[in-house]
Amino acid sequence: MKARLTVLGSGTSMGVPTIGCDCAVCHSSDPHDRRTRPSIMVEYGGKTILIDTTPDFREQAIREQIRQLDAVLYTHAHADHILGIDDLRPLTFHRDRKIPLYARPDHADMMRDMFRYIFDADYKYGGLAQVELNPIDGPVDLFGARFEPVAVLHGDAEIIGFRFGSAAYLTDFSEIPETSYAQLNGLDILFLDALRHRPHPTHSTVDNSLRIVDRLKPTRAFFTHICHDLPHQATNEVLPPHVRLSYDGMKLEFEI
After folding, report:
1. What is the pTM of this model?
2. pLDDT digits (tens, 9 = 90+) for 219-239
3. Domains and CATH numbers, the chain
4. Integer Cα distance of 119 and 121 in angstroms
């Protein structure tokens, strides 16, 4: 089945431009250097699936003219991946059922605590996002496609990415456990965290992600969760031709 992947956001947790920063990338005139927080949208068979809802979701949804949403999958419960839950509201009001959200049980507990006013409140005036949390305890089958969780390490914490058809999306990792590599063979598209060149305790570097690309050999690889250390054009000029920095609004076709 044909599918389209849209990069809603390609930036790190503080976004690019970063507040108060005077660096060249934060003041770049290249629109590719404007990076909202990391998220993707997957469309197939008339359905729309998100992976993560960032603090920039409202801006992203208006930019991409999102009018329908059928499910959201979450990689983990850090603020830059979940704070857009409240902005799901207008996409839930004209449905006959709640939008399902899927997260690992430990991450779902954190989300329920943070958004207790949504998940536990009895608010009679109808202004809350109409969503329901569902636990991820294995592959999630959605509308004829399978989203398979892939365990990765985000510093000391285990979180998940997803494989769906011939594509995989792995954001916010510093290491991929050996047991996860078998899930990532035969990919057309691979998205990988590549924060910057300098080491970071919880994120992959450009060199580390290039080593992963060399091992897995996807047809196409794209780096995401990019900070202001990496200018878009100059970085792409030194990457292998099948590896690119992703950018907000990028669209890719693939088989799901």
Report:
1. 0.96
2. 999 999 999 999 999 999 999
3. 2-255 (3.60.15.10)
4. 6
